[in-house]
Amino acid sequence: MSPLEPLRPTDPPAIGPYSLRGRLGEGGMGAVYLGRSPGGRTVAVKLIRPELAADPGFRARFRAEVTAARAASGAFTAPLVDADPDGPVPWMATAYVPGVSLGRAVALEGPLPEPALRALAAGVAESLESVHRAGLVHRDLKPGNVLLALDGPHVIDFGIARATDGTALTATGMILGTPAYMSPEQAFGQPLTPASDVFSLGATLVFAAGGAGPFDGEGGAGQPQEVLRRVAHEEPDLSAVPEGLRLLVAACLAKAPGDRPTPRQVVDIVRTAGTPRTSEAWLPPALIAAIERAAAVMAPSVPAPAPPSAGSSTVPLPPLPPGPPPSVPPYGSPYGSPYGSAHVPPYGPPYGPPAAGDGPAGPGRRRFLRLGLAGGAVALAGGGTGFGLWLGQDDPPEPKPASGAKAPAPARTDPDRVLGDGFEAEPLWTAPVSEPLVQLAGEGGTVVAFSAKHVWAFDPAGRRRWGPVAHLPDSATGAIEGSIAAVSGGMAYAVLRRGAGELDKALRAIRLDTGAEAWTLPAPYKSPTGVGVTGVLDGTVYVTGTAGASVIDPKKGLQIIAGPMIWAVDVAKRTGWKSILTDPEVKYPQGRLFVPSSGTRLLWATENTDGSAQKIAAIDVRTRKFAWEQPSPGAATDPMERLSGGRYDHWSDGPHSSAGGLFLHVTDRLRAVDPANGHVVWTSPEVALRAVVASTDGRTVFAAARARTALSILVYAFDSRTGAVRWAGTIPDMKGGLPVLQSADDTLYLAAGGQMWALDAADGKARWRYRFSTTLQTGPPRAFWAGGGQVYVMGMDGLVALSAKGR
Question: What segment(s) does the record annotate as region Disordered (predicted)?
Fold first, then answer.
């Protein structure tokens, strides 16, 4: 079995003089291939996306990356072999360095022993010495950018390296790097010297010695601003560093740049104080074995994977083992923070090493190793050149079990792991309703049920509190979107049709305790369509739809504008603001608003009616303006994906659009986006996940999708902060329905094809299942909600309630 992903039909057979043997990885900025020169030299080739090649600013940044990589090439970096930054499609090739990233090594084998720490300190210092000699400051030295190879450590990724003379392509004071490993002067946006890299070396050594950064704090890393504050003002935690190295590491972590040793002094201190190497091996045997497996791909006998034939199906890659969480989430906010913005790779794969203590991967599981290619942590306005570069390396095949022996259980992160069906659940009660329900919601022991004509409220025991109350939602929204209402603060908020021909719309507040109408506000635009409530954030209800209005332009006179609208209503003051969103680059825009659980920014996703020109933007609710706008990463191109707007879920509220302070954005896969700057903090495995929901505490993100190759549903659980896969698995489903998700009470509820499963949120195992429809149902069930130890769904005979325990 080839350790590489096969070339795709759209991949070129060669780049420059290098024939391509397979894919090593892919990011939002391009793809990385394993290439071989006519003389047999193995290289890693980064090919930039054609659409980015047309951006002069992007070309300039990529050209600077090539220059930095060429200048820094040396014995302990990944040498630049060849590049064509000015070609029709820019590319660069570096020597392939088989190795294991320091972060993965610590996750696999735990902290490094003191002899290995000494060799690490000296080897990285030697690398920095060559980088500084070239007139560069690396600016992003961290465990992920240090490769452990048989000949010693290598420093990689020069995507944000800058000349020491101050030459840069970024604005003055802009901060780039990873907060947990930044120097104090870097945190304050001050000019940097080589001493900044020495500080990062000290922080990296602390991680290697104990598995955590020196400024993580007792409760974990926390928000970037808090980490940067500790970096600038607090003393590092050196308790895990061996006593023989503690003084050296403390000197590297001195707050004042002038108090830190130079890289040459670090090498000299290690050489004079440490125990000399008595053998060639400087790493534990398990890490040496992993490095040797990574080198197997260089064997000329390994055939190049053949591209799949036209029309053939592509089997999704298995997911990667979860990586150790970084010491701080790699994102930052330039708004309201004295530290500026911490920039990270926008679209790179987040895959890392398996967490310590995880069981061995199953047969054929891919191992991913970081390569020495420039571009680790850069994200500039309009797109950066950096993205994670990873090598798929298969584990040795495990021996087949002897006759009668039990096969090893699949790993928890294996998507082929069968999660089971569980037992058949029994309903707690069924409450008859006169019409089919289109949405369910609840709060404080009250479940609110909406149909296309009425509203009811029930208590957890199935007793009707009130209703039916006459209510006509916008028919287009009720029939298509499903999110017609929201419940918050003892009120249900929904849009009501009224007036002549029921063309006018109004926002209606209904008291949960009595069903009485508290107030009604007319929509700010005449006869809007597709109007529904998207969500509630900090006492403001957000309503979306499509509207038109006339405006007076000082130069053009009377103008008619039309497009997606946003209407925000402060429920305490019953006032708000409105806007029709237009885009000169989009002829017929359509948009979708996502309202997170917290924060001051909304996610706006827009596209043309034909699915083109897909963009995302953040709307600041304080200024009522776009904080940033950019092309949608991984924009959907599949017709089915375009038809579904990139996702199967019909909900846009907080649990379905945010987690851990990040936006959850779905296109070709799931991405977590920093609301502060639009950077992609992490990306899911290459699986077309569509249904998304966060746990009630916001720490876990659950996602699901139809499996392409079988009648089953793939389910994943991710760490909301890092994107690490906590568990994955498959649920057999013969109906072929689209999955939707709700999360409550340590349970993940999945509904598809007229059936519901309750999965244990901790490991994904199915507790129970329930068939709520006897018909073939391929559309997602919109009337579906969970809370208070129960889950509610529209069944064939009315509103059905089930216990989280299934009985």
Answer: 301-332, 393-414
Q: Is the pLDDT of residue 11 over 80?
A: yes
What tokens were used for 556? Answer: 């053009």
- The H-or-E segment that residue 628 falls in is strand 625-631
Alpha carbon 55 to its chain centroid, in Å, reads 25
pLDDT tens-digit profile of 640-685? 444 445 677 778 899 999 999 999 999 888 999 999 999 999 999 9
Report the run of H or E that residue 606 belongs to, with start and end.
strand 601-608
Residue 88 clears pLDDT 50, i.e. is over it: yes
Residue 806 to residues 79, 205, 427, 446, 733, Cα–Cα distance (Å): 59, 50, 8, 20, 19
CA distance 355 to 353: 6
CA distances from 228 to 90, 145, 184, 249, 342 (A): 35, 20, 8, 19, 10
Kindly report, as residue ranges, where domains of CATH 3.30.200.20 are found in the chain: 1-96
The 10 Å CB-count burial string (b at 16+, else e) for 235-252 is: ebbbeebbeebeebbbbb
Helix 263-273 crosses helix 243-252 at what angle (to 10 degrees)?
Answer: 170
The DSSP-derived string for 189-231 is T----HHHHHHHHHHHHHHHHHSS-TT--TT-S--HHHHHHHH
423-803 CATH pick, 2.130.10.10, 3.30.70.100, 3.40.390.30, 3.30.750.200: 2.130.10.10
Phi first, then psi: what are they for 32, rounded to 5°? Answer: -125, 130
Residue range 189-211, pLDDT digits in tens: 777 889 999 999 999 999 999 98
Task: Please state, in angstroms and rounded to a whole number, the distance separating the CA atoms of residues 112 and 124.
Answer: 15
Residue at token pair 């499996």: 707
pLDDT tens readout for residues 34-49: 888 888 888 888 888 7
DSSP string over 488-539:
ETTEEEEEEEESGGG-EEEEEEEETTT--EEEEEE-SSSS-EEEEEEEEETT
Residue spans in the chain of domains classed CATH 2.130.10.10:
423-803
Amino acid at 384: G
Contact criterion met (CB below 8 Å) for 319 and 718:
no
Please count the other Cβ atoms lying within 10 Å of the Cβ belonging to residue 153: 26
Is 526 known as a binding-site position? no
- In the numeric block, the tokens 């208070």 are attached to 788
Interhelix angle 243-252/194-210, rounded to 10 degrees, is 150
Written out in words, the top-level CATH class of the domain with range 100-296 is mainly alpha
> Which residue do the tokens 């209703």 mark?
467
- Calculate the alpha carbon distances from 560 to 547, 557, 586 in Å: 11, 10, 16
Higher pLDDT, 125 or 339: 125
pLDDT, tens only, 762-778: 999 999 999 988 665 65
Of 766, 773, 771, 807, nearest to 789 (Cα)? 807
Other CB atoms within a 10 A radius of the CB of residue 416 amount to 17
Q: At what angle do helices 194-210 and 114-133 cross, to 10 degrees?
A: 160
140 is catalytic: yes
Q: What is the Rg, in whole angstroms, of the alpha carbon atoms belonging to the chain?
A: 28
Question: Distance between CA 517 and CA 512 in Å, rounded?
Answer: 10
Q: What is the pLDDT of residue 778?
A: 58
For domain 1-96, the CATH class is alpha beta
Best CA proximity match to 580, nearest among 523, 644, 540, 538:
523
Task: Please pick, among 11, 55, 86, 140, the residue that the annotation labels catalytic.
Answer: 140
